[in-house]
Write a sequence for this structure.
């Protein structure tokens, strides 16, 4: 074991503060990574504030962070795919059983015995896993992906969660040229959803509650932008969408979007608000529409997504911050005031 520097919260209403955590020495299958950048996902905020207590209560102290890019500093004796100095990425998962039907199908996100990057049982050290708001992490090589060298690293970090979480359902629902796709909520996930839908050739409509984001949405790849608080603007799109990705972090009226789907259209929730959403049965059954959810993505698909980003020159639009500004960043995230992802420059953890 060794000591790593990190930022943690001590309780649901506590601010982040500097701390020291234990990391395991690399086992034969492990890769040790010096973390260079870590994105701030709204899931980090939900967890730090224990907003998901009914589904996955937070164990404090908590070190969030599952959008990790860094450089390999050490590899175990059995590691074959990585060597010291390689660029590496780690997302929301750090382990799974590897034997269940989901793992055999490269869908580790559905493994009943998966281990999340933070706030999950740590099989090696006991206690809970600690995430990427830290200077280093040790991860089984099966859960480490290659970060293409042409990607800006600060902007690549958010691909490990916001990227895969929006890419995966779009691939699953067959988004291609000729499809009309809506993306609801222009935050970390939503702005990646717009980029991917555009790169896949769809006609993209961004829905936002923030009129100030309109110009950006067009620049990010939206063909149209709808200010969702305007009933008139919403009505113009009734019954017209093949697919809508809902990436909203808070309570909102999902029925307004169900009505925008065409026959057999699908709306997929990737946003995970604290409280249940009310869904009108009629909205779904008139039109045989469907409502789905989608969690992150498997490791193979995460690598595919990174390679897609490399080919298409896609990274997240980031505001790079030192870790000392993490409390301020959380306040801004709560106000939907970030363009469009905070990426923590972990070099700042070296300074006092
Ligand atoms: P984020 O950056 O905070 O973006 C959320 C966006 O939702 C905001 O930018 C805002 O967009 C919109 N929004 C916020 N409050 C709203 C309200 N009261 N009514 C309507 N719209 C509102 O968050 P994120 O990191 O993208 O995460 C979004 C959600 O996805 C979170 O719940 C997160 O936990 C979840 N998530 C799920 C997965 C998964 O595996 N499914 C993975 C990662 C994250 P506008 O300003 O454009 O309206
Ligand atoms: Zn996330």
């Amino acid at each position: 074991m060794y000591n790593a520097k990190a930022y943690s919260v001590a309780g649901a209403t506590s601010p982040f503060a500097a701390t020291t955590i234990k990391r395991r020495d690399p086992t034969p299958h492990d890769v040790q990574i010096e973390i260079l950048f870590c994105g701030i996902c709204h899931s980090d905020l939900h967890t730090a504030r224990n907003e998901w207590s009914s589904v996955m209560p937070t164990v404090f102290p908590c070190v969030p962070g599952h959008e990790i890019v860094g450089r390999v500093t050490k590899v175990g004796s059995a590691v074959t795919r990585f060597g010291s100095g390689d660029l590496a990425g780690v997302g929301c998962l750090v382990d799974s059983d590897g034997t269940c039907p989901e793992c055999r199908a490269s869908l580790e996100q559905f493994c009943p015995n998966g281990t999340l990057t933070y706030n999950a049982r740590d099989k090696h050290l006991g206690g809970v896993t600690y995430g990427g708001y830290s200077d280093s992490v040790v991860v089984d090589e099966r859960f480490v992906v290659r970060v293409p060298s042409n990607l800006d690293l600060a902007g690549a970090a958010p691909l490990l969660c916001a990227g895969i979480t929006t890419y995966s359902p779009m691939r699953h629902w067959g988004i291609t040229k000729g499809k009309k796709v809506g993306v609801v909520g222009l935050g970390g996930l939503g702005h990646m959803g717009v980029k991917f839908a555009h790169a896949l050739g769809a006609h993209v409509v961004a829905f936002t509650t923030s009129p100030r984001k309109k110009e950006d949405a067009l620049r990010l790849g939206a063909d149209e932008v709808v200010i969702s608080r305007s009933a008139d603007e919403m009505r113009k799109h009734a019954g017209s969408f093949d697919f809508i990705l809902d990436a909203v972090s808070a309570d909102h009226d999902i029925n307004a979007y169900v009505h925008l789907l065409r026959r057999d259209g699908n709306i997929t929730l990737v946003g995970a608000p604290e409280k249940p959403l009310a869904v009108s049965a009629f909205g779904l059954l008139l039109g045989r529409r469907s409502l789905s959810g989608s969690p992150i993505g498997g490791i193979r698909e995460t690598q595919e997504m990174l390679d897609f980003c490399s080919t298409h020159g896609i990274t997240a639009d980031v505001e790079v911050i030192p870790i000392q500004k993490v409390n301020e960043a959380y306040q801004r995230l709560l106000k939907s005031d970030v363009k469009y992802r905070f990426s923590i420059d972990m070099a700042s953890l070296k300074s006092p």
